[in-house]
Specification:
Layout lengths: L1 E3 L2 H11 L10 E5 L5 H13 L4 E5 L19 H10 L4 E3 L3 H4 L18 H4 L3 H16 L3 E5 L3 H13 L5 E5 L19 H6 L1 H15 L5 H13 L4 E9 L15 E8 L2 E8 L2
Parallel strand pairs: 1-4, 2-3, 2-5, 3-4, 5-6
Antiparallel strand pairs: 7-8, 8-9
Helix pairs in contact: 6-7, 9-10
The protein binds adenosine monophosphate.
């Protein structure tokens, strides 16, 4: 498996490997920030099933999506293990650029998906989705994949990127893979390593809230106020965890809805100690 460090190398590799794009022989891109776990593995596996031998995995801890007081400096970096995992799951190439490569000196161009970027995680992390959209746009423009794989785990990110791909007329299909969880329900996240033993237990309140809402919906409940209140009650059982948001929204606009219908997104974010975690479910 090759490791590429420059945008030009990625562009060349991609051009050489997406032989007949129009006939399903394009290439797949799996953007990540590294510290790969079974959630990322599921994306790489899905990509290599769809585009065997033509999967690029990018590993880049993108500084522009971190706020000034966030964890950019201490974000887990496990490059050798990441390469081994990516290769095992069928990646053909790793793209691991430097910050200077992605943001050349004097870089002044950003991609701002208006309105959506201020919702959910964007409301509590100003500038986060601008950083995400900017770096993913750079990756999609360089690699021109016909498929790009993302996790439902970051559902608001998916909404922002779907909008961006349509607006910029990029010729890439966004493929969304299900949330991979620990056996006890906790959604896998590179940030779970920050949790101490007590916080690891407290963190289960997120998936319990999701579970509770899924059961209510299955029993016929659809009203937003009732579903949000039920989730709030679950969170109240774990007062050490501080809720950031509990929202029922249209997955395309991220705008709140009054009742759940097919495809509506129920999403939560909460602080467990100093670690902010997210979880969600899509109704239907
Ligand atoms: P990250 O490295 O955190 O930027 O994540 C890279 C990609 O992996 C994103 O599309 C995430 O949504 C996806 N991802 C992260 N955690 C999970 C998970 N538990 N299940 C499925 N996909 C995930």
């Amino acid at each position: 498996m090759q490791i590429l460090g420059t945008v030009e190398e990625l562009r060349q590799w991609s051009r050489a490997h997406r032989c007949d794009r129009a006939n399903g022989a394009g290439m797949a891109l799996v953007p990540t920030m590294g510290a790969l776990h079974a959630g990322h593995a599921s994306l790489i596996r899905a990509a290599s099933e769809a585009r065997p031998g033509r999967v690029a995995v990018s590993i880049f801890v993108n500084p522009t999506q971190f706020g000034p007081n966030e964890d950019f400096a201490r974000y887990p970096r496990t490059f050798s293990a990441d390469c081994a995992l990516a290769e095992r799951e069928g990646a053909s190439v790793i793209f691991a650029p430097s910050v200077e490569e992605m943001y050349p000196a004097g870089a002044a161009t950003v991609v701002d998906v208006e309105a959506l970027s201020d919702r959910l995680d964007g409301a509590s992390r100003p500038g986060h989705f601008r950083g995400v959209a900017t770096v993913v746009a750079k990756l999609l423009i360089a690699a021109e994949p016909d498929l790009a794989f993302f996790g439902q785990k970051d559902a608001a990110q998916v909404a922002v990127l779907r909008r961006m791909v349509v607006d910029l007329r990029l010729d890439t299909k966004i493929v969304v893979c299900p949330i991979v969880r620990e056996p006890d329900g906790l959604a896998l996240s590179s940030r779970n390593v920050y949790l101490n033993a007590a916080e690891r237990k407290q963190a289960l309140v997120l998936s319990r809230a999701i579970d509770c809402v899924q059961k209510l919906v299955a029993s016929g409940e659809r009203r937003s106020v009732t579903l949000i209140e039920a989730a709030r009650t679950v969170f109240a059982e774990q007062p050490a965890v501080r809720v950031d948001y509990i929202e029922l929204v249209d997955w395309a606009t991220l705008w709140p809805v009054l009742s759940a219908t097919q495809g509506t997104l129920f999403a939560v974010a909460a602080w467990v100690g100093a670690t902010r975690l997210i979880d969600n479910t899509v109704i239907g």
